[in-house]
Amino acid sequence: MRSVKQYEKKEVGTVKDVSRGNLGYDIESSRKNEVRFIEVKSRVPGGSVELTRNEHETAQRLGPDYYLYVVTRVKALPQLYEIRNPISRCKTNKIVIQSWRIDDWQTSATHIEWIR
Predict the structure, then answer these.
(1) Does 2-108 carry CATH code 3.40.1350?
(2) What is the pLDDT of residues 10-29, one digit of tens each?
(3) H/E element holding 84?
(4) Where are the domains of the chain?
(5) Has this prediction a pTM greater than 0.70?
(6) Torsion of CA 66, 69, 70, 74, to 10 degrees
(7) CA-based nearest residue to 81, from 67, 92, 62, 60
(8) Which of 19-23, 88-92, 109-113 has the lowest mean pLDDT?
(9) What stretch of H or E contains 60?
(10) Which of 13, 18, 66, 77 has its CA 20 to 30 A from that of 28?
(11) Three-state DSSP class for 30?
(12) 81 with 70: CB under 8 angstroms?
C-alpha cells in the first residue's frame, strides 16, 4: 500500500488511508475534479486478484470512481497497475469459499488467563 500512497501523493497530493474502515476500498485520493476510491492488491506477476463481497459491491456502486491498483514485485522493484471501473472492464468469476462454524467451542476449550 505504501507504493500506491507514494504514487498518489506525487500525482495529486491529497491521499487518505481508509483501509481500516471496511468501506470496500483502501484509499481516497482527491484530485482537482475527482475523488478516486482505490482498492489496493499485491500479487505476483500473472496471479489473479480476488475482491471480497464488500469490495465487489462497492466497485459496482461507485463504477468509474472506483479504481483497482495492483502492485507486483513488492519486495524488489514494485510495479503498479491501475484499472478504472474494474467490474465493467474485467472478467469476474464468483468463487465460493467454504468455512466451518464451531458452536460448542466453550465446552471444548480450556480457559487461559493473561498474566500481567
Answers:
(1) yes
(2) 777 689 999 999 999 999 99
(3) strand 79-84
(4) 2-108
(5) yes
(6) -150
(7) 67
(8) 109-113
(9) helix 53-62
(10) 77
(11) strand
(12) yes
